Structure formats: structure tokens, C-alpha cells
Amino acid sequence: MRLATALDVPLRQQNSLLTAAGFAPVWRQTNLAAPELGQIRSALDFMLTQQEPFPAVAVDRHWNLLQSNSGAVRLVEFLVGPLAPNTPINLADALVAPDVLRPHLVNWVEVVGYFIRSVEADAAADGTAETAALLKRLLAYEGVQATFRAPPEELALTPVLPMHFRKGNTDLQLFTTIATLGIPRDITLQELRVESFFPMDDETARILRGWAERA
Fold first, then answer.
1. CA dihedral defined by 63, 89, 205, 174, rounded to 10 degrees?
2. Count of CB atoms situated within 10 Å of the CB of 109
3. pLDDT score at 83
4. For residue 64, what are the β-bridge partners?
5. CA–CA distance, 127 with 204 (Å, rounded to integer)
6. Residues in the chain with pLDDT < 70?
């Protein structure tokens, strides 16, 4: 346990090490809906609400959507139309697949190239079959392999890489931040990510605020 802590081994992999050595796992994996995580859910609700009218989502380590705010729902409905209630959503598939967000993401090649490298890093770090399967699935989508052969931009025009959505006459440019819980002692909480979207320009902010006012 001291060695795993010094090497910053994730809790899930610490359990695997303990099991391989003949010991019982130490770290639990609690369902986010469990009563003992009520304070965590309240914190997530607060974070997602504070991000309004801009989008924000909570996802697990494989980018399965756990929770979203109204701003995220409005953005998705504008781009791809309303979703049936309780529809399982994987944001990695939605970003990389050819028929969801790709038709509306102007700089899809840049964004997906960067995103795939982050999934590769996750797969290398956790070494699990589930993350390896996610990476394999994403790499199999049409056009993904070509993103690695795309020449890099000669000059970075913005301090961060935005996601540039376009549908009809509407242009939206958004950048994101990703937050994690500090000092988690549960596998579910260590693997939880909260991604918040912010407008890259005044016009995007005006559009998102307008959607909220009309909702």
C-alpha cells in the first residue's frame, strides 16, 4: 500500500495489486446513487447548477454520462435533437462517431486527435480490458486513424483548443475544464470527472444565455 501510494497508483489498480498478492481489496466502489454519497451528489448538483447557462456534465472514467445540467441538454438538443428519457449516453462515442456530433464540429480532426490521445493515456495508466475496449472501439470509427496523420497547426491562434460547433447560421466556440474530487477514497469518486464548457467569445455566450432565457 505504501509503494502504491508513492507511485500514485489509482485505487482500482491498488485493489488489483492486493488481490494478486493474495490480500483482500481495500478500496470500495460505491454506486453514485447510494445514500452514503448524498453529500457528493449535492456538491455535483451545486457545481452543475452554478455553471448555468453554460453546459456542464459529470462522467465516469469511460465517458458514460452520469449527470448534466440544463445548459448541456439545450446544447445537445440544438445539435442533434431531443433524446428519449433515460437514454444511455457515452460522450466519447458521441464525439468520435460519424453521425452524432461530428457533422456539426468544424474542427473535429483536431479535437478528436487530442481526445484519442487522452484515452490512450487512460488505457496505458489503468491497464483494464474495459478501457482498452473503449480505445479499440473509438479507433475503429471511420476517419479516426487519419486524425493522427493530420499536420499540426503551424500557429496556435488561441490559448486553448476550442470546440467549434456550427449548425445552420449558428456558430458556437467552447472550451472546457475538467474537475476531479480531491483526496477520493472510493473508486467511483476517484474516476468521476466534471467537465464544464465555457464560451470562447461573446457571441457564443449571448446565444447560450438566450437559450436559457427562452427555456
1. 40
2. 17
3. 86
4. 90
5. 39
6. 152-156
Residues ≥6 apart with Cβ < 8 Å to 30: 36, 37, 186, 187, 188, 189
Q: What are phi and psi of 170, to 5 degrees?
A: -100, 125
Give the model confidence (pLDDT) of 110-144 as tens digits: 999 999 999 999 998 888 899 999 999 999 999 99
Whether the Cβ atoms of residue 197 and residue 54 lie closer than 8 Å to each other: yes
SS percent in the chain: helix, strand, coil, step 5: 45, 15, 35
pTM of the predicted model, to two decimals?
Answer: 0.91
* Ordered DSSP codes for 81-92: ----TT---BHH
Domains with residue ranges and CATH for the chain: 1-30 (no CATH), 38-214 (3.30.450.180)
Q: Which residues pair with 167 in a beta bridge?
A: 170
